[in-house]
Amino acid sequence: MRTYVLRRLIIAIPSLLIASLIVFTLPRLIPGDVVQLMFEEKGYGKDLEEMRAKLGLNRPIPVQYVDWLGRVVRGDFGESLWTRQAVLDQVAQRLPVTLTLGFEALVVAVLIGVPIGIVAAVRQDGPLDFVARSAAILGLSIPAFVTSIVVILLPAIWWGWSPVTTFVRFSANPAAYALQFVLPALILGTASAAAIMRLTRGMLLEVLRQDYVRTAWAKGLRERAVVLKHSLKNAVIPVVTVLGLQVAQIAGGAVIVETIFGIPGMGQFLVESIIQRDYPVIQGINLLIVVIIVATNLLVDLTYAMLDPRIRY
Amino acid sequence: MAKAVEIPVREPIAPPLRVPNAAVRLGRLTLRKPLGAIGALIVVTLILLAAFADQIAPYPYDESIAGARMKAPSAQFWMGTDNLARDIWSRVVYGARISVTVGFATVALVTLLATAIGVTSAYVGGTVDIVVQRIVDAWMSFPALVIVLSLLAALGPGMLNLILALAILGAAGTSRVIRGATLATLQHPYVEAARALGSGHLRIIVRHVLPNVLATIIILATVALGTVILAESALSFLGFGVPPPYPSWGGMLSGSGRSFMYHAPWMALCPGAAISLAVFGFNMLGDALRDVLDPRLRGAGVRMRG
Asked: Distance between CA A279 and CA A29 in Å, rounded?
């Protein structure tokens, strides 16, 4: 087990290096120069070249990359070109917000997706299955920004009520802090719930056709025991993989939901930084997201071993 | 090389098969897969709207109609009018053009790229496979929207760039699935047999691998169409899509659609419904295709009740 974890970590290194290269080059391809932008908007400095030299942007890009990577390895993500605040400090303020949102969305996705998937598989081709599958496809089809707008709009038209959009800090009121994410998390989790429901149904259908399940029926076990105790464990393994993939999905969706609901998280931060061409911040956020996703995938693979005794590392 | 030896092949004896004509088969498929049929209907409608937008739309997409600012839906304006007094139904019809164009062009590009990468990586194998797959890993571990946003910011807005960005994004994940399908195909004895008979690499790929991977590719492409239309509208919503005044559904929902939505809800709801319906159609069609083309999951499982 330990050697497996080590091996996985070593394999992750080249992936992370390639990712860091993409993360570094991409924002630099954005047309429009940050120094130019600063000059126009804020009138910082008099001389563009002097400004560039001060920010270290006049050096060749490979040199900048190696320098940046060296610092990142030592835990220094640099500072924002605009606010001169350390990237890590800014991220530390916003990451918990997005993590709370993402976690609640994931909980929503599992709580809705798995039970409905089970029912749909057990009643395959029945009316319940039909409704569940149509609803799942509908859930996958309606984009988060449409749901958000409908959710904000319809209550406002019908009852003159609209969700509160002022953000409550955790330190101010922990209960209100957690509650304000429920609506966005429901919206964010719906698409993932649909994906999880479809997979749970598909996998359970395959397992229900296996010989040992027939044996379980033949022994006279009740449906509950056959489905929940015998079949579900084997069906749920690929669902765990998809859960890992959903983390990336939710991270992307958070960008939109945070923008609409005015939640000061990583997604909103990223959109702002792209507009401002704040290279260190864009790189820092992207790299952190990648690290989180790589870590999640490792965690997913390790969970395999716990769920499936046939898999040994 | 020696001349190929003629092996006498005995024709298999089978009762003559009566193949029902296409219309009958289509009818049966519709009865068996009603959701898929609805999906196909939506997709065909969408394509017709896009193709004949000039004939179908009652007004040009950018014409302000005098005295018709933010009118509620009526017999004259099916979906009402917007804050610039433009007919929303006409704009939705023209918006279908963007969705269809971006959707099909992107998916064509994705399929081409992904098939080339996936099949080659699996077929060549060894170090090439390992290196290519690590790059795919890195590419896939980015959140989709984040990567497209950065790419679009780099390329600048516009339809062509949108298609390029979405295609580059989609190709990685799709190529992974196609690689898997190719690997499975390469296990079969007939590939070995073809090699033993002296077939070249190209012949093996074109004659033996591709036809067997085709079902996977078709399913992936149909589902990808829905995903791409969804992504296009999300990007237009964030302001990175096709620039105004040309109407795209996502763009209609953001900006004025959102700021006037309390006074003229139809401005936001109509394009929102259009996006959802279009993606719903592609997803249902893809789902039905998967069931038809993947025979493993056909029919009911063993179920006994005491």
From this structure: 11
What is the C-alpha to C-alpha distance for residues A259 and A274, in angstroms, rounded to an integer?
14
Q: Do A143 and B279 touch (CB under 8 A)?
A: yes
Are the CB atoms for A186 and A179 separated by under 8 Å? Answer: no
Q: Nearest 10 degrees: CA dihedral of B210, B171, B177, B220?
A: -80
Distance of CA B61 to the CA centre of its chain: 26
Q: Which residues of A are less than 8 Å from B141 in CB distance? A: 15, 19, 248, 290, 293-294, 297
For B275, the closest of A133, A146, A223 (CB atoms) is A146
Helix, strand, coil % (nearest 5) of chain B? 70, 0, 30
Instruction: Check: CB of residue A273 under 8 Å from CB of residue A261.
Output: no
Helix residue spans in chain A (DSSP H): 2-28, 34-42, 48-55, 61-73, 87-122, 127-141, 144-159, 174-179, 182-208, 211-218, 223-224, 232-261, 266-276, 279-307
Neighbouring C-alpha atoms within 13 Å toward the C-beta of B231: 29
Question: What's the pTM?
Answer: 0.76
Residue-level pLDDT, tens digit, chain B, 306 residues: 455 566 665 655 555 556 667 777 777 777 777 778 888 899 999 999 888 888 887 778 777 777 767 777 777 777 777 777 788 888 888 888 888 899 999 999 999 999 999 999 988 888 888 888 878 877 776 666 667 777 776 677 778 888 888 888 788 888 888 888 888 888 888 888 988 998 888 888 888 888 888 888 887 888 788 888 888 888 888 777 777 778 888 888 876 667 777 777 787 888 888 998 998 898 888 878 877 776 544 443 333 333
How far apart are the C-alpha atoms of A201 and B236, rounded to whole Å?
34
ipTM of the complex: 0.70
Q: Does B31 touch chain A (CB under 8 A)?
A: no
DSSP state of A79: B
Question: 3-state DSSP call for residue B58?
Answer: coil
